[in-house]
Design a protein that fits this description.
Elements: E1 13-16, H1 21-29, E2 34-37, H2 42-52
């Protein structure tokens, strides 16, 4: 998605049911701006998204 000009500056937060360090590292390697594993608190998700804007 980052190859699309309109999406280059769009932040990406990965929400996953997997909390393995390898998965998190792979997400960042592929361009994610943040990573959260389930279960997560909705307030934490909102705080992380707000931080990216």
């Amino acid at each position: 998605m980052r190859t699309t000009p309109a999406m280059r500056r769009m932040p990406f937060v990965i929400l996953s049911d997997c909390s393995r360090p390898e998965e998190e590292a792979e997400s960042f390697y592929r361009g994610a701006d943040d990573y959260m594993a389930k279960p997560y608190a909705p307030s934490e998700l909102l705080a992380r998204v707000e931080r990216l804007f």
